[in-house]
User: Fold this.
Amino acid sequence: MTRIECHQLAPRVGELAANQHLALAAIRSSASAGVDVIVLPELVTSGYVFSSAAEAAQLAVGRDDPMFTSWAEAAGDSLVIAGFAERAGDGLLYNSAVALDGTGIRAVYRKIHLWDSEKLVFTPGGDAPPILDTRHGRIGILICYDLEFPELTRAVALAGADLIAAPTNWPLTERPAGERAAEVLNCMVTARVNHLAIACCDRTGTERGQRWTAGTTIIDQDGWPVATADDAGVAGAELDLLRSRDKTLTPLCDAFGDRRPELYARIFPLQH
Amino acid sequence: MTRIECHQLAPRVGELAANQHLALAAIRSSASAGVDVIVLPELVTSGYVFSSAAEAAQLAVGRDDPMFTSWAEAAGDSLVIAGFAERAGDGLLYNSAVALDGTGIRAVYRKIHLWDSEKLVFTPGGDAPPILDTRHGRIGILICYDLEFPELTRAVALAGADLIAAPTNWPLTERPAGERAAEVLNCMVTARVNHLAIACCDRTGTERGQRWTAGTTIIDQDGWPVATADDAGVAGAELDLLRSRDKTLTPLCDAFGDRRPELYARIFPLQH
Assistant:
């Protein structure tokens, strides 16, 4: 069984040092409790609603930033996935997520699908999402709006991910009374059709007038939520990630085996 | 605006003539009320839980069956999408859906993804789902388990469908208290990420011990249900199907324009 915790934090835009410490405290808390996989929100170090690209640049850090060293020390045996504003060597900015443990940075993923005004600040990623083979299972990483592209989530599932860990920053939108956020429903369905687990870690609070959805949810391979954030903002669950490797639906059906990729390519040649 | 009605019927397996009449009565009722698009369940003429392939063969009809003539006469200006067991000229059986109006059969779709013991009876379809350009909008047709393959639903959306009309036969499965059926959630998310409408017409009742989900739902382009079956088993809604053609999410975001197909093909070359 893999213990997963998401920390639905409320970083404050512009307060880099304070946010780094907020994240560090969350990592330390979960790691010391023996949690295996710790997920923090998108852009947890910088905040999200930038007043300008210049402000974003000031809040971005490189992969050699000492922040990651302190996070890695705190992580120990745990795997941490956390969003941050990345400044690359060439000065470009990326909306990135780091995966790290006590050995240091394991991977950095740069968000492929940028949402709205992120496009004015960040460069879209051009590399595949990492799928880390860890002792906790195979962990794929996506960020927020990436989840809305079934091409990508399916590809990550087919590439073998047992769990998608997804830092998010979902702006609150109107929805019918009694409904879950559409973004959470999307994660539930993505988990079910791909028979894998998803841990999406969202933001809470309000930032420069932008309210957040606070939609943090851990979802099992059948697509049902097993945990949302408690009063302390923590969603925690134990999941058997190995269940993700058996795509059997019935003795005659298999979620992946029943795909017909050659047919898709033939009947919709421009799309496959 | 397009008026859509789904008839959540309870055909009885083996009673071909009675089921044909049940369907005819539903078509007549909606068509005479001026409904534009009428959707009936999967395998509405034959029933679903066959005792043998031989029984299925006895309940299958060819495209020249007089049933379709009577349905077309009743349809008039309406477009009808209904599931039936199809016997092809070569004797093979297909789990098919017909689309017809007063001019006769417009298209027949053969289900591509067969569920469970359907595989013991039917041959899987090998042609693209039709996307009919009608005065009511562009109507794509899928059947039941097809909806669980995001490759296919995305392809139908990219090919221009405004509405997916889907005859279904969802076996009732356990779900957490208070949750919608997972199959309905899947349709909601499929509608939202592709910004199109979906009308899924399910079965009700029990057949040879198999209970049905009765999940009939008409879903708008934002992914929210606008109608489920009433006490008479009819789900009816008016939708502006032209809304499906504008995939704009924000001034800077577009559900289709933000896709990165070249990148998907490069980073997951075996899957795209």
